[in-house]
């Protein structure tokens, strides 16, 4: 009995000792994971518009000065379509109208009017027939629009003109005032006779009138200061 009591006491003591030797477990804290915030995407900056370059103004070309009026007199006329290659001589008025050189092969230029190529009407004239010989302008009415006439000047230069119109008029009803008018745009009016000779009039009954204008590319000079005299139709 005594041994049993001792055994019980030893067991009790052992339990006490074991209990006393154990550490009180510390409280364990499991950290709550901190949620890392998702970074908001940075806004893409809108690029500022580049300033448009200031356009460089295009300078306006300075107008080309008008050439000086022609001063050299015409000395020769060529019309290839008629095989004309003739001397030109200046003439003045005669009895209030344009005088014509007494020759079948010379063309007259009215030297009180415009020089061919200047502003105004340059008058050229030639006989259809003289002293029984055919004149150089006899076939003037055979020209076609666009045919070319070249005029040589005493200074060695040459100008080209194109046929704008050609008409055959009955002398008594021809628009003489308009044909012989010396002012207006640059043109060359070439005149010759045609048709039967009227003895009472002392001339042919018809007139061929061909009007030439400066060819393309020809720069017309400024008009002369002195006005043209009036020519009797």
Helix coverage percent: 10-25%
Strand order of the largest sheet: 1-2-5-6-11-12-10-9
Q: pLDDT below 50 for ≥5 consecutive residues: which ranges?
A: 1-34
Topology pattern, helix = H, strand = E: HEEEEEEEEEEHEE
Q: Major sheet, described briefly?
A: 8 strands, mixed, barrel
SSE class: mainly beta
Oligomer: single chain
Beta-strand fraction estimate: 25-35%
Task: Count all strands and give the number.
Answer: 12
Distance N terminus to C terminus? 184 Å
Number of helices: 2
Structure description:
By secondary structure, the protein is mainly β. The protein is built from two helices and twelve strands. The strands form three sheets. The chain has an eight-stranded mixed barrel with strand order 1-2-5-6-11-12-10-9. Strands 3-4 form a two-stranded antiparallel sheet. The protein is elongated and about 115 Å long. The termini are far apart. The N terminus is likely disordered.
Q: What topology does this entry show?
A:
Layout: H1 2-21, E1 74-79, E2 84-91, E3 93-94, E4 97-98, E5 106-110, E6 121-125, E7 129-130, E8 133-134, E9 148-153, E10 158-170, H2 176-179, E11 187-198, E12 203-214
Parallel strand pairs: 2-5, 6-11
Antiparallel strand pairs: 1-2, 1-9, 3-4, 5-6, 7-8, 9-10, 10-12, 11-12
């Amino acid at each position: 009995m005594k041994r049993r009591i001792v055994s019980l006491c030893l067991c009790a003591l052992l339990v006490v000792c074991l209990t006393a030797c154990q550490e009180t477990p510390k409280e364990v804290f499991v950290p709550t994971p901190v949620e890392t915030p998702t970074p908001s995407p940075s806004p893409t900056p809108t690029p500022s518009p580049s300033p448009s370059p200031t356009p460089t103004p295009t300078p306006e070309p300075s107008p080309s000065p008008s050439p000086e009026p022609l001063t050299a007199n015409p000395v020769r006329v060529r019309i290839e379509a008629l095989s004309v290659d003739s001397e030109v001589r200046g003439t003045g008025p005669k009895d209030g109208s344009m005088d014509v050189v007494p020759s079948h092969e010379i063309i007259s230029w009215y030297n009180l009017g415009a020089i061919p190529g200047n502003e105004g009407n340059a008058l050229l004239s030639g006989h259809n027939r003289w002293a029984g010989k055919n004149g150089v302008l006899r076939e003037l009415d055979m020209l076609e629009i666009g045919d070319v006439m070249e005029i040589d000047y005493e200074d060695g230069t040459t100008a080209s003109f194109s046929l704008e119109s050609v008409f055959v008029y009955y002398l008594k009803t021809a628009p003489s005032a308009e044909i012989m008018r010396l002012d207006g745009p640059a043109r060359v009016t070439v005149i010759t006779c045609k048709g039967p000779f009227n003895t009472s009039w002392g001339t042919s009954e018809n007139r061929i009138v061909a009007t030439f204008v400066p060819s393309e590319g020809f720069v017309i000079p400024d008009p002369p200061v002195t006005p043209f005299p009036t020519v009797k139709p």
